[in-house]
């Protein structure tokens, strides 16, 4: 939303705090919809029409976008609070979501199981876990991280799918790898994230997330399924647990142990790589808006990112940029 | 060669130094053939039959393998020096070499160019460089590193081929990547190693190698070809040079700059991954001899490596272990 | 055992490998009893009396202590293998053990529970876990680490007891701490070590130990007891699990998460402190033998350790040195 | 002070700078009293009533608390400057101070000397130093650090007392420690801080503090007392100096040498632990105001801190929270 | 420019962005002249007189300096845009420049060549490079860094000259050093910076600068001159290239290789030292304005810097402070 | 001493330990003279002629140099112990010493004081300290470090002189520096080393050295002289103490504080540089013996060092190598 632009739209209140100026109380609000967030103000005396406001409310806002200290800011002229049971209101409409719907991502993960899992016990184990109601429903909405990468509904699945694909592709290059155990590891490596993060409008760490971390949570969630599987070899179970436990690669990234098998190295690399490529993709999306070749300094990558000249490629219509803004090439 | 075993064989002298014991002078020798190295002694008075010995000589040795301080050691009972022009002597027979002959590896690299390089200027550039007599002949014999990984004739090509394949496989998963520039980067990322290392029996760093490093040497070797290519876009040339310059990933690994494009990240990961998998493969080869599940502590990886239980796979005959000891699956 | 000394004693074979010298095959053996280990040789032709030897055998050795390259070495003149069912042979006699018998250490731990656990559910939980047959029997023999500190039978319990005592003492200084949860954390913080290490003559890491680490193993072992405890508040369970998960303090020491509560900080400090004091105690014991003020360089502490002048203290009979060589002051 | 609240109170000016707005000059002021600090403004034209203002003045302010960019800010409507010799003005009233008065803390330290120092020369030495007029008066007012922990009048003594108590408690657990030398080290470990920091309203580093650090200053201050003590053994003096010199534990925390004795390890741990617990206590005090379970991100600890569920404890009336806001339990 | 001061002067627009307030659009501008930069605003409705403004314009401004959030800010009352071909306008007048004019600095560098280069091929090589039109013109204007040190026209030459002088002075102390190769290395060590940075009003990194770094660029620029020099020994060429390649000293500062010769160590130290002294000189210049003894915290040096008491020195007129604000003592 | 060479010479016993072989007791001895050390053996039965041997004895040895595991080793055939009061025995003859006699080095340091110290109080202070009997006698014999650099009698003075010269040379390049305070700092920066190291045949750390470090010892030794100097400004004293306290540059090298003044930066650089150049000089001396261009891996520098091609220089007779093996060019 560019400064100078009038606004008349629906938003979710992501936060709402009352403050006090010389001219009386006012509201500091963060408005959110599926495309992002914007800060805003309801100045006095209009502010006094809203004795209380709470995150999670859906509102219709009329106002105007100003710029304040180099950031856009929404000045509210009028704001109506929608009823929670308003048939027009679906909270999901206000949360950013993966381009490919989470259900399709889940299906693509299941297709990988079908394609690569030739060993019955592995196939059965994966289907059991993915078919579990709580796990499935959490995976379908969980983000892939708090803020840096894949921080949207479906983000965990999108990341899971690409890491799994990368692992399978590398098994073609290194055929001595144990493809099936690696796939199981790839699919479940970040399972704990579905409990580590709250998801939803706030998407913050949960208590469990901060106190244990997603690695330990993930192993704990798989444990009952491992116990129940009578046909899966104990050595394979141990390897799967090692893949999950070691996937951060180094102690300083929170891995209790470091990779000790080639499959564990591959999983760590694929995980790391996909997170970084997703961050760059998001930077590219921003850079495309302004036509810049260099991103601003990116704290997480500790560098600026560059969009280089692309090799001309007749087979790609628009030369390296996806046709729509869906980041994930589902049907690659 | 196990202790207690008699020996009657041809060897290359990798090193030969005279020493002095209470009983007179003796020779400390390192014998080498294509399968490895073994230290040995010629004790006095037999030692006095050889007033001088030099690395590079080929000899026929009769003797006996002893164990000394937990290492095997060859006691020489008789040693005859072969003439340099002996038709039976081919130095190459005494150097460890990649399983797949270097010429086939080079062909496989060229096949990748043919398969993926659709942009004429890229294809032409790669063919020019690979067709250059000096470059080609150096690449065909160069090792991939001094000691840790791919330290054998053909090692550079083997590493180059697998890194290139890994990059191409990942382009299938991330189709927005510039596949052709990435392939050029993968093929030439370690080109400088062919000058950084002497190869041959000693395989030590060259003066240039220690004073500049293979990154700078590699860029320098490509520079004349880049200058000559009139059709290749300047931005693509710049990207290729960035891929090579940044492929060590972090300053602390000797990268003058860090990766700034997604292709540069991918190349760094593929390079790192292939080196580590080669180290593990070598550890596995040793572990197979003794039937151990755990490798000894590996200084370079800073850990012990484990061979996990393999998922039963009917499609693999010998379950995860290559049929012969060739590490590289050429016809994957 | 000083060089020049004749030997006639019982030992456990900790390792036995055959080697080959110019004079025929010989045996490299590590002999062990409760006071330590010594390397030795059986030279040819006597070596040929023993076609095979295996770790775990108990033998009676006559021989002589030589010094070889600054280390003592036992030359075997005669060696008789005892029958496994020999009534004189108790394997435990050949393993180093804590001065205070493990059973007394366990009792002392249980006394702490009785003394400090005023909240019924905590007391019941601790008694259940400590009363479990497998856990109790493993805790009674487990070492506290592989080599560096507490590497003897009872070592885990000795460390557990001192860490628990230190935590309780600090609760007197900082009364706002939750003494009971902290005690539960102290008692069980290293529980996983009873599975991470094999104990016994070899005392090496187990596969589980290397692939998961004792933190994850410990949490896994407690999980069923936590699930079963209906009366213990969920928040307290979560805190206990956090204490165990975070007790290494920093990611680089293998903590998946870092301490987030004051109790977790205290436990980490007490654990770290006790390990270091035990290392210094062992160095002091060595220094006492030779009358040195400075220890040799200690790799784990990365320094030399000093025994300073002690303040004269009439209440201590022998001024700072324990009366016997028992390191742990049980009845303090 | 919450936004929207009228103010009529005495403050110390901690800083006062004139600035210029479109509407004329105004004053940026930091007001301070024993409970904390608040920024404020005197806008034009009222600002022109105060041609000059200086830190250290005591003023009576009438005004109003606004919120500005998420921080409270005091808008001054009227301000009267009190005479320096006003009998109502005691500067100490405007500085934050330890809950337990510094004199009582000093007494508690002296009680520890009486209780534990059985060796005459140690007792005499400690009493001499603590009895020295300059040292005593500085210790009574010195803060424990610039900002992070114990940053208030009496803070140094509070920290000194708790570190000493923790050391004495650990001597009960590890009776081989030299209790008396350790106590001397604990009492004087941070003595240099009384010169490193200016204390007072500004509480910044002094020139000496920045150029030498409190370790070197502390040793320098003790040196004359050590020289004068004829009865104290030289080895004990050396140990005390080592305790002070090494108490930061690692070079990277500014220790010129690292701990080489068990007492030095203990002192370092106790020092580190008390600083961290004090930081957490302060975070808890803030969290109690807002009812949060998690603190904001704490830069010094590099983490968020959690208040866990407390074990029910009938012996504690208010379950883990001190009855008043005094952080230190003096009569524990 | 102090708050409260009226302004009537010429400036270069370093940046100009339009923003939107409640009262209409306004301009955020950064004004620059040779002495520094100041942010400013043109408020509505005056802002509407300037439908577009671009960096690089030269303007005459009348206005007033306000303070806003502790920074000075220029409120524009009137602004006239000068014609680009206005004879009064020389862009160089608006860029900060070394005190000693770049031409004189270049002459001083050339004097060093004349004085120290006794070996014909070295002298000829240096003169060739310095005489090259593109190199000379870039060196005359290039800054020494982006922001931290020597960030002004002539900065590269000033740094080059002082590093060269320091190296020559150290050769007097260590006469075994190869003075001439070291001088060549000192003169050209940062040559690549003339292409790494854009210089000019923006002075940002160029694409080449970010993708390759100035070390690789510098070697590339010298390569043709090295190839052409037939008389210079290959070993000397190799040493010069090593000096440039290794001058950052450590991998983590972006050196592809680390110094391997004494001359390379000296060059690295001299380079590092001169950069730090220049930073301190700039801090001193700021501190002199306010009479402070301590600088504010300096992020690059990670510390505050102190101006100590100076030894009285009759030979220096103004006791350690240069007579004018020229930082470089050209005729030392 | 090359293997195969007969020996008939005087040595100091640097160490002597009895050991036990199959053939009876033998002696492991380290023999030392001014040129270095060599290990040796006295085998049984000759060993039994020497019931006890102690470090510090001077002996005449006849024997033979053997090589053992790539090191030379002296086999003793005959050994006579000289009387301690033998007029032929001067212990100093057996210790390695700086080429330039320590007295001349001291004179050269005093010449620097005379030349540069124009401020009376500085000159007087330096003369007082250097004239003190204990300090002077310790400085004349102290080594510059334990092993790595300047580890010989006179080494401290040699290092002190070169660091002082380097600082003075840099003051010519940076005339704003306070030359006199810097000189005082350079002369006394390592004063504490004369107490930190024992010097003599063993040259190990003293107790004080390990417990406090030479920085604190040095400041302590200067303190009484600083107190006595009435004319030296307090600010100058403070600066001198800061120079000494901060000269290791970074906390991780044991500096309690880091440099805060330009003089402190210069001193740190000069100190660091001189130590490294001395290490390289020693490596060069070894390399000259064997004609190698590359040194072996040097643990302290963490690299191999290279001797590059030297620029031809008619003014140097032997082209970069000193005429004799004196490392220090005293009359430069």
UniProtKB/TrEMBL annotation, chains A, B, C, D, E, F:
Coiled coil: none annotated. SMART domains: HDc. The keyword Amino-acid biosynthesis does not apply. Residues 308-332 are annotated as: Disordered. This is HDIG domain-containing protein. Gene3D superfamilies: Hypothetical protein af1432, Nucleic acid-binding proteins. InterPro entries: HD/PDEase_dom, HD_domain, HDIG_dom, NA-bd_OB-fold, NA-bd_OB_tRNA, YhaM_exoribonuc/phosphodiest. Residues 156-276 form the HD domain. Pfam families: HD, tRNA_anti-codon. It comes from Pseudodesulfovibrio portus. Transmembrane segments: none annotated. NCBIfam families: HDIG. Keywords: Hydrolase.
